[in-house]
Design brief:
By secondary structure, this protein is of the alpha+beta class. The chain is built from 21 helices and 12 strands. A hairpin with a 5-residue loop joins β6 and β7. The N and C termini lie far apart (about 70 Å).
Length: about 550
């Protein structure tokens, strides 16, 4: 009985897609782009079954910043990395470009209606409530928490090194730093001790481990087809599939959400009691609970929204940071000269973690340059997705030539056009970041003329890693300070190098919705970056 139902659903989706195409009077079919491998898959196999963003770079080099990409069943979509087009989509008309309904539905079903999964007035309301918890002063106040969390990791490593007769040990960077980041977000955002570093069997930490990889890693052709089609079929069909034909890959995230929601409910009860007892604090959760008791109904969040925000904060607040740090240590192992130079600057400060203030980082230019270069070269969210809610005209910084030879300085696009923004490709723009944009080089940020975006776009360092506009990452200041703190503590104390089995070429930037470090020979094991660690010698001081 199940297969006829699936056939009916797919048939209905195809008919709906064809109907939608015939309704459009504006076309993007004349835009240059790679030829489709097939009508069924389009360019999706080439785009998704490769290391993260590698296809983006190749297409950008050949076709420029505006590319027509063929989705499954022959639908034309746009991949953009043109700065002016991106500015229009994310700043000028940000609420006129929605996140794809199918993807939104998947993530809402997994994590609830958090800030990243809502649109319009719901998004404005939630963002207004949450922003005060992630401002500049608030983020700087979390610095002792960051050093405390990573300090526990440092102590664990010191103990492991001391117990080894060769005074060295091998650690998996994602394993340890995801736990430290989870502890940091727990204490900073919720005033709660997850205890992930101290407890090797921590249920929440284990539940989040490899979650995105299990959902989206090593995709099969059928799963690639499903992901490509999820944004083409009617939302009602998507919701039906998610409810009655739920893919097995999502079951892992379902269990994680059940666990985090259980913890979140307990925390909400505690924060509510504290608020009523006039003992409320300034952590993010306290602000959310306080808003929920506002006399203004429009400022409140219903329970599922409140829990959705918490699930989103826990996920986004540690997954992206841990993966960014993993690639930072990959680069430090690959470039020992950069590691030595960074350690020398850190040690020149003559401070320990508890003594640092955020202003100290202003006197550590190479550390800041290294953080910026890591964020540029390894954007964890390498693609973002939007759909035009109405007809638009995209302004272009760089004119494009169509298949017919016409030169365009602006591009009309029809309502319903699906857009892939290549964050990774924009971050390798050679006009902005130099001819060596495909080389990891922190010194680019210390030049007389450092990288500068040609239009107002991102929130940090001319990068688009944190996106921009009304949907930019509200926790970007939090993340940048956390990266500075973790690197200061660990690089100042330890030396890092690849293991005998894992040189630079052994690792892969896995594409699983977020960029994840894996080993080419053991991709099925998910996120890992084993490195050899020893105490840094005094001679480097």
């Amino acid at each position: 009985m199940l297969y006829p139902l699936i056939y009916a659903v797919v048939s209905a989706a195809v008919l709906y897609l064809l109907y939608q195409r015939f309704q459009r009077r504006i076309s993007i079919s004349h835009i240059r782009g790679p030829p489709a491998a097939s009508w069924l898959y389009g360019n999706w196999l080439e785009l998704m079954d490769c290391p993260a963003a590698e296809t983006d770079f190749r297409w950008q080099a050949e076709y420029g910043g505006i590319i027509r990409v063929t989705a499954p069943l022959g639908e034309n979509r746009l991949m953009i990395s043109d700065p002016k087009a991106m500015q229009y989509v994310y700043h000028t008309a940000s609420y006129g470009f929605l996140k794809p309904a199918g993807r939104q539905s998947i993530f809402r079903s997994l994590f609830g209606p958090g800030l990243t999964n809502v649109e319009g007035d719901d998004h404005r309301r939630a963002r207004k409530i949450m922003l005060p918890g992630f401002g500049g002063p608030e983020s700087r106040a979390y610095l002792p928490i960051f050093f405390s969390s990573v300090g526990k990791v440092a102590q664990k490593w010191e103990d492991m090194i001391a117990a080894d007769e060769k005074q060295t040990t091998v650690v998996s960077i994602p394993h340890w730093l995801s736990r430290a980041a989870l502890d940091a977000i727990g204490e900073a955002a919720f005033d709660y001790q997850f205890g992930a570093v101290d407890d090797s069997g921590n249920a929440l930490a284990e539940s989040y481990n490899n979650m995105f990889f299990d959902m989206f890693g090593i995709p099969t052709p059928s799963s690639i087809l499903s992901i490509g089609m999820i944004d083409e079929i009617p939302l009602g069909v998507t919701n039906f599939i998610l409810k009655y034909l739920r893919p097995k890959r999502l079951s892992r995230a379902d269990k994680t959400t059940e666990l985090s929601t259980e913890i979140s409910r307990t925390l909400v009860e505690e924060k509510t009691a504290a608020l009523l007892a006039d003992k409320g604090r300034r952590d993010v959760l306290s602000l959310l609970v306080k808003a929920n008791h506002s006399e203004n109904p429009k400022a409140r969040l219903v329970e599922k929204e409140l829990l959705g925000q918490m699930n989103t904060i826990i996920l986004a607040g540690h997954e992206t940071t841990a993966n960014t740090l993993s690639f930072a240590f990959y680069e430090l192992c690959k470039h020992q000269d950069i590691q030595r130079r960074l350690r020398a600057e850190i040690r020149s400060m003559g401070k320990t973690g508890a003594d640092y203030t955020s202003s100290d980082f202003n006197n550590m230019p190479y550390l800041t340059a290294f953080v910026k270069e890591t964020l540029r070269f390894h954007p964890i969210v390498y693609n973002t997705f939007r759909v035009a809610a109405e007809n638009h005209v995209l302004p272009l910084l760089n004119p494009i030539t169509t298949d017919t030879g016409e030169v365009l300085n602006k591009l009309p696009i029809p309502k319903g056009t699906k857009i892939i923004t290549s964050v990774a490709a924009y971050n390798r723009n050679q006009v902005i970041f130099g001819d060596d944009a495909h080389v990891f080089n922190p010194d680019r940020w210390l030049r007389k003329d450092p990288p500068k975006s040609l239009v107002s776009l991102g929130v940090y360092g001319s990068l688009f890693t944190f996106v921009g506009g009304s949907r930019s990452c509200i926790g970007w200041r939090f993340a940048v300070l956390e990266l500075h703190a973790f690197l200061t503590e660990l690089v100042g104390k330890f030396e890092f190098e690849f293991t005998e089995e894992g040189g630079a070429s052994a690792f892969r930037r896995e594409a699983c919705h977020v960029m994840t470090p894996t080993m080419e020979s053991d991709r099925d094991k998910g996120s890992q970056l084993p490195v050899r660690v020893r105490m840094a010698g005094d001679e480097e001081a």
